[in-house]
């Protein structure tokens, strides 16, 4: 590396308790605004006012609305994960449990379609600058699926199947939000993708 070269992204120190509380207020304000009016309703100044932080402070946490709404989706998934741990999905097979888990996630988003649409649009618009936030959403989704599978140490083949399931879930959500798929079609697509999980299970577990 030359003397003038700099790393592309600096390591961020851990947040203090006060900063964590401020971040939670921002994410809750973002979700409330999106619930009321979707993507267009989430304006950075209004988020700052609703969360009682200065606009400059908000931009230090989230450089744009896209960053903010992707982080909001990660926060929503984190709450869902906690709820799933309190009441794990039923099902004899890993595929059944994952399908039920993802349908529970879908139904949670279905209850707040404006919020779901805002978060999905942000994920779709996200560029490389929002990669850390997008990666957090992916890691949270993967953790939810692996918990449903009952798998702490998945094989590379299982992780590949999980990625396919994630892509299918996300695509099915977009199709439903745009009116191109019914809830029955969403369930059918998710259940079909989840069968890959059984195909990648070790021989002794089939």
TrEMBL record:
DNA-binding annotation, residue ranges on this chain: 43-62
Protein name: TetR family transcriptional regulator
Residues covered by region (Disordered): 1-22
Source organism (scientific name): Streptomyces thermoalcalitolerans
Record keywords, A-Z: DNA-binding
PANTHER family in UniProt: HTH-TYPE TRANSCRIPTIONAL REGULATOR RUTR (PTHR30055), HTH-TYPE TRANSCRIPTIONAL REPRESSOR KSTR (PTHR30055:SF242)
Domain of life, source organism: Bacteria
Keyword DNA-binding: yes
SUPFAM superfamilies (alphabetical): Homeodomain-like
HTH tetR-type domain location: 20-80
């Amino acid at each position: 590396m030359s003397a003038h070269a700099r790393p592309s992204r600096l390591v961020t120190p851990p947040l203090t308790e006060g900063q964590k509380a401020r971040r939670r207020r921002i994410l809750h304000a973002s979700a409330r605004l999106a619930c009321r009016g979707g993507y267009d309703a989430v304006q950075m100044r209004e988020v700052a006012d609703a969360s009682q932080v200065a606009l400059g402070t908000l931009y230090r946490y989230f450089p744009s609305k896209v960053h903010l709404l992707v982080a909001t989706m990660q926060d929503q998934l984190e709450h869902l994960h906690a709820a799933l741990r309190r009441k794990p999905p039923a099902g004899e097979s890993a595929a059944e449990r994952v399908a039920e888990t993802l349908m529970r996630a879908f139904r949670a988003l279905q209850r707040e379609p404006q919020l779901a649409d805002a978060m999905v649009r942000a994920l779709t618009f996200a560029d490389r600058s929002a990669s850390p936030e997008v990666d957090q959403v992916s890691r949270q989704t993967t953790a939810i699926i692996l918990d449903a599978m009952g798998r702490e140490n998945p094989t590379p083949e299982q992780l590949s199947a999980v990625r396919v399931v994630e892509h299918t879930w996300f695509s099915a959500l977009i199709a439903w939000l745009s009116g191109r798929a019914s809830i029955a079609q969403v369930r059918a697509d998710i259940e079909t993708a989840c069968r890959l999980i059984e195909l990648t299970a070790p021989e002794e577990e089939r």
